[in-house]
Amino acid sequence: MPTSVDHDALSTLIGAVVGGCEIARTELTEAALPDAPQWPTEDDDIDSDAGRSEQTVQVSRPTVDQPTMRFPLASVLAAPSTQEPPRSSPVRVAANGPVSGSGGSAVPTAGSGGSGTPSAEKAGGKSHGAVGPEGGQPRAVPVRVEPKGDQRTTELSVPNAKTARVDQLPNSEPSWFDQAARTEQQRRPQQQSQQQSQQSPRPEPQRPVQTKRVDQLQAQAPARQESARSEQPRPVPPPRQEPRELPVTGYDEEPEDRLATDEPRKSRKPLVVVLSLLVVAALAGATVYAVDEFGGATAVETKPPAAPAVVQPLVKAVTAGGPAPSPAGVKQALAGPAGNSALGTLTGSVVDPASGAALWQQGDTTAATPASSLKVLTAAAALLSLEKTDQLSTKVVQGAEPGTVVIVGGGDPTISGVPGRSVYPGAATLDDLVNQVKQKGQVTKVQFDLSRYAGEALGPQWESADIAGGSVAPIVPFMLDGGRVDQSNVNGVRTGSPGQAAADAFAQRVGAPAASAGTAPQGAPVLGEVKSAPVEQLVDNMMQISDNVLTEAIAREIAIKTGNEPSFAGGVKAVRDVLTKNGFDLTGASFVDGSGLSASNKIPAKLLTDVLTAAAKPAPDDPRTAKLRPLLTALPVAGGSGTLAGRYGGTAARGKGWVRAKTGTLTGVNALAGVVVDVDGRLLVFSFMSASNRDPETEVRPALDVMAAALRGCGCS
């Protein structure tokens, strides 16, 4: 480690060199520093063979703890001056030359032309230097250092064949030029520099010391140098082993880049190298794997896909090939369930539609009250007489007076007053009708025409309490949501004047006063029209939710189609006519409506099984079968949909999903008519009607469900 020299001692030492040494000019040639960029000086053109053969002197910068100044090689010390205090900058020594005066030496500046003439004006001031001719490199102006007070100037003698280093200079104000230019290699942290850092509070990474070789010594030091050396008791520290030929870099960074940081700047090069090696290794491994796995003689062969799994469907196709149940087997299966006293008076029948054989009968020809199971007959008549794609149309036409419109009821009770809240899938909307009419002009008056239907609005023996109870509404050809007040509640309260309520809703939306009854002019222009879902879908919907209003509307459409009056009586007559025409025996059947809401309706259970058997035949050779097939899919599924969604629990659970049937409920009356698939895959048709005063919710209906479930478990061959 170099010995610390205080400011005064060093000033004395440098003064000796300045005053006593005749420094020769040197020339940095490619031979001297072959790998380092050279800063040209005006002394570079001097050739001296003798100087190259002589020993060199090496002046090193202090440690990184001391701020330093780097100068081009051509710069030399100037004569002492009182213009500026001493600066802690490295001294660049030129070859010895003649001395002018006793107190100092003539120091040529960068622009002196090598004349050796002293220039105090150029030598003084801060050593930022002039700009060199190439690359915008600054050329330093030499700094003159003088001793303080009466201190004597101490001369430094440089012995032959040895190098002398000024390893440490007194602290002074550091210039930004004193920060060493950092190359990629020089930015690496140096542990030795960190250990030597004692004076600076913020250590810097140690940079390699840039040495400049002086290739010529033209003369030996004067004798007084020996005297000065004898007066200097402190020995010169031995030179450190450092690279002899390092590139001398210029000021290639801006001043702000040389500001000290709180921590040493660490190089990322080792990390980059490690990451690069890892990536190369990964790519090499992937290449080897790919070659081993996908190429060469040992490549893995693609195996054929596994054979499809064997699927065992839980629901078997219903065919006539299954074991045919026998009447004895069915009778045995139903003996227990049919004897349940909760059923009261029970009538019914079971038929095999594939063979047409009657498997079980109990009062099947005796007329009984069917309740809503009567809808099976109305639905069958609709499928047999109406086109499945027929739709019910509601129109608005121009009235007799300007600004007046007339709503012509077309028999569609499913028009939705509030989109998204209808219980009828595929229903038309009142908003659609309103928008069509508004586009044709302003409406000042609204009328509604209900002349499509005739007769009474309520069926025989219907009770007005059923309106508030949600079972029915007056049957008129124009209404919204089946007359429901709450559009999404299937069993909710209905209105007693559905035609007026629907017309008023229309008038409000077109901006007209309340509507009134009226008659549409013959041949009046149509201003708007909406259509219902197809008849097949309407039949399905009325069977699923057992909607009485929709059923009566369909019965009237059958009456219109068959030339009968569109009334209760006309609808009943039309249904009977259609069924009789298609070969069904209506002996003993007497009914006054199409929905079964009247307690005076009477039909035998056999009529229900006859209609369902025609729909369930396995072969479509019967022309009735093709038309009636949708009747089977319209039936609610046990435990799954419609009016059977919440049934078939407990002992009837084995029929869940296998039974499809239409329900019927009135006071003291319960009925169930439909189809079931037994365990042998055979489709059976049944109808059961019970007249009982027992609790329908907890006793009668569950007992009927057990009977149908017993047919499901029947292996009755």
UniProtKB/TrEMBL annotation:
It comes from Lentzea jiangxiensis. Residues 188-201 have a biased composition (Low complexity). Belongs to the peptidase S13 family. GO terms for biological process: peptidoglycan metabolic process; proteolysis. This is D-alanyl-D-alanine carboxypeptidase / D-alanyl-D-alanine-endopeptidase (Penicillin-binding protein 4). The keyword Protease applies. Pfam families: Peptidase_S13. Signal peptide: none annotated.
